[in-house]
Fold this protein.
Amino acid sequence: MEGWASRPSGGRDARRSTAGCNLRQSWPWALTHHWFNRHRPCGIPCRYTPEVNPDIDLLEALRRYWGYSSFRPLQERIVASLMGGHDVCVVMPTGGGKSLCYQLPALALGKTAIVVSPLIALMQDQAAQLAQMGIPAAVLNSTMAGDEQGRIMRRARDGEFRLLYLSPERLARENTLEFLRSVPTAFFAIDEAHCISEWGHEFRPEYRQLSCLRTHFPDRAIAAFTASATRRVRHDILHQLQLKDPHKYIASFHRPNLRYVVKQCDANSQAQLLVRAIKKCSEGNIIVYSPTIARVEETVDLLEEHGIPAVGYHGKMEADERRRNQERWMSDEVRVLVGTIAFGLGINKATVRAVIHLSLPKSIEQYYQEAGRAGRDGKPADCILLWQKRDTALLAHFISQITDPAETERAWERYRRIRDFADTARCRHRQICLHFGETPKWESCGACDVCGSQPEWMAVPPKAAPRRGRRRLPMVPPVEVPQDAAIPLMAALPEPDSALREYVREWRRNMARRQSVPAYIVMHDTSLEELCRMRPRSLAALSRVTGFGERKIEAYGEQILLALEEFEKGARAAQVHEQKTKPAEETLRLLKEGKSFSEIASLRQRQLGTVIGTVATLVEQGEVAFDDSWVEANRRSVIEAACQQIGTQWLKPLKEALPPEITFEEIRLVVARLRRLKAGAEEPASA
Ligand SMILES: [Zn+2]
């Protein structure tokens, strides 16, 4: 792979190198930390900041601060490159342990690493996590109060922080660059570096300003990190950041514990398959990706109608509510989260057992990144893409809105690739690897639908919809879940006692609330699982659980041991799953109380359109009578006249035939009443 150090799937580290990357040729591959302490990381003079603190034992630091007993693939070499003052470019799937690659060298060098990251929330979580580990870190952003910023800048000048997080815009400001000159900087780390490339799927123009770094700090190393970058994007990253003879590392894109399943559906079969898939997945968390905000809400309602608690996540929610929903999901209070693509950047959840897409993503990169949030703990997980023909029209519509011709061309290229991925009967794993420029040695993976690994719940054909085109999502027929559809099992560790797991999750949730930090900052999923398996009885035994560094044991050790003791004595997690009223019932109740649509929307925390959709379904089903006050008489007769001509089967032709000021919601309501009457049913008495 063009001179990148990689780990091809199923193999040992590749020792390839080509011209232009000869620094690495002299690199001793089987490096131990003892060797590292006695020697420079490589025989070639360092390019930038050569001062390595000779006293630091990397493995000891790893154990003490992170609670890990060994490095993950590539980590040690990346750390050594940065310690040696080299530029690096790293492509590593999310969950592969990227952040440690710059956090550990910053700690070891005793200076400040400047980290550029696209999201404030993400930076704050990382800083909070580091604080829990006992590593001083701070975020500097413009939303902070002025004196707070001043304080952080002063402390940064004094070299107090090992890591300082900044947004790309903030970094590129002239006065920030000036300020950074006074900070004892170790190196710069650029997170989500693919955002710098317009060939990537998440181009952010503000990232382009980072190309000034090399000019302003010619003697500091720059490290670029990304989870998904094609060959072209990787090249662009090196070029834009002006990296000099960088050490390049790339992990395999093959995630053998993931099973990819792709299925083209209609609206009815999609809803049924979604419910089946979730019902079949009895453990762990699930993410459902929905193309629009309206569909997020409809899907949450659909799931709740089927007795599956779920929370939504989208851009139009109040920030507080969004954060709360995310945290309820992260702390295992609710297993299923339905979100738009806005959800997930920086999500640090290891036990996601399924990621389900309800529409075709914009690109393979986007799909790989989102689906890749499944199975970070290395256990089997499903990535299910349930797409509809109409998705292609929506994507084509988005592309037609792009004004820049070059960008339009790139968007079409991305569209063709994802269409190909979904449409053609070629191994999905292989298609993904090839897309990112990796050629697997195998032809068939055994872990995708094309290679014959299909969940049984998918093999049973969905029931036909009662009346095509008339029912909205929440009203699908009850879903039958076929038995014994199991995710293919890999050699897995024994499952911990589920009652104990629930108990520790509850402990973690309460602790996180008390400290106002996300649950995973108190304890990672993988640590939680291991804790429940090992059931330590002493602090020494606890320190052998992955993720329990010194500081964490100091902070929580005694309390965790106490909680485990309580469990032994019979304590159990409280049953938190209160039986929620189903969305349609709840809407009906509020309607009967005389609440207006917008009052219901605000009470149920739904968009107005979603509420009206539910009401229309209730009208059609005869659960509630059409109320004349909903649609003004004139407008109603115009709609009814159109229905006479066109019929009531489809809404879209009605909307097109009617004057633009007639809203889709008004049409929905009037049509619902006509359908009810047409079915020969009586209208119920007014509420
Ligand atoms: Zn396959």
Summary: The two ends are 69 Å apart (CA to CA). The chain has four domains: 5-251, 258-478, 498-568, 583-686.
